Amino acid sequence: MSHKFFISHYSKDKSIAELFSNALRRITLEQISPWFSSDTTGGQGLQPGDIWFNQILTKITQSKAVVSLLTPNSIDRPWIYFESGIGQALPDCEIIPVCIGVKRDSILPPLGLYQCYQLNDYRSVVEFFSKLLTLFGIKFDEEMSRVVIEKLVADISQISFEKEEKKDENKDSIEKLIESFKSHIDKRFLEVLEKPTYQIVGDNLNLKIDEGGKNKKSEIEPSYSVTFDVDFEDFKNDSLYIDIRPSDTFQTVTNTLFFMLSNYVKPFRYLEEWVIIEKDTNMHVIIREVGEMIPATSIFKPDTKWKIIKLENPYSALDSSERIRG
Fold this sequence. Notes:
By secondary structure, this protein is α/β, with parallel strands linked by helices. It is about 35% helix and about 20% strand. The protein contains 9 helices and 11 strands. The termini are far apart.
């Protein structure tokens, strides 16, 4: 039996939808059949003669999940929110946003109220696949899926997005207003809304809150996103985003970054082939043997900015001495 779910995406993000779909098919041995409108393989996607609106409605209503691909191309596109809204109105459909090239905390409501996953963060991808496969009653085996996930993360991390040349000032003001509003909403209220239940009553859409579930512990660790700019020759993507969790160590972060950079650096070569630098202070993160003992949250704090550079030669203690003494 092939389970179906819907990938909501912007047409410019077709390559991301294809990478994601192919990885999922391999991991599940074709047990899950993703559908997205721009798919041109094997007669999938919208076909000539299709009434596209009816076809999309049909596919969403047949799906157990709608995965929304949020990128710099799509994050402001109302159609993504419209398709996700159709899925949310269905009683047995789960909405799962995934981010590529944008920080999770930059996603505005309503999709910003859901648990979002970074598609270029290995750990986040593992959590995402685990949730999705559990939804379809399929066992997820991380070890068997590791090679596929590592390749997906490396490929996704190299995707670049065109920067907007001109930004609408009115739109920017609206976004700032919404962000200001969001920052004043009680955190607990957002957690309650994270998985809302809707009920259609007459012409009204009512929100039902499960009071019995408000004390349940979330299975996902609270986290925040941090930006890493990559200064590698031929690296297509300017910035990478990873999630920092309370349980992370410095070693966890470098391991996560390695999966994104695996086409450019060899394993276990931090401080030999590459190094992380804080952009504002030019502080080089010189840690090796005690990396597993140092909490990532004490280094990669919210709103800090980092860059990753290639080293011409392995790091030497004299490098720090010369830089600090000036």
